[in-house]
Amino acid sequence: MSQSTLDQALATIQAAWRPLDSDLIGACLRALEQLAGATVSEPWLAELHERRPASTELARHPEHGFVLLAHAEPPGLYRPPHDHGRAWVVYAVQSGAMEVRTFIRVMDASGLPRLIQRDSTVLGPGEARAYLPGDIHDTRALDEGALQFRFTERDLRAEDRGGRMARYDRPQDGWSIAL
Length: 179
Prior knowledge:
The chain is of the alpha+beta class.
């Protein structure tokens, strides 16, 4: 019996798992690109396309702690700039398109943190991108919405509860840290 693309991607990640380094990021990117390129004829993916859940957990590794989620994002859904604390993440788009902008945090003249946009990338079907600990980014589902996968090396709820994730607001004079 052949494995699903989901099973293959998880096996690839598990086999490559070790402390964060370039090889691990490369293996996870390739696995997520393969996952994002899966055909809708696979039952697990057909169900995602049919149900279009806002968020559903596809996998959680009991020993390593990594988590794979699927998100069906409606057109225009925007998630303001944030980081993932100590965690790193790989976003992969299965269908539709998603814009991801990255930012750098600087201190303004009054000593308050502000964000400056660094770049903008549009991820389409089959594309994946990694964001490392401390990388600040936002996401926006484009016109057709997006079905995307989010792979995190740890459960982000714990990072959030621990106060290690930063989120940003946009007052009239630029992005600032949300209090």
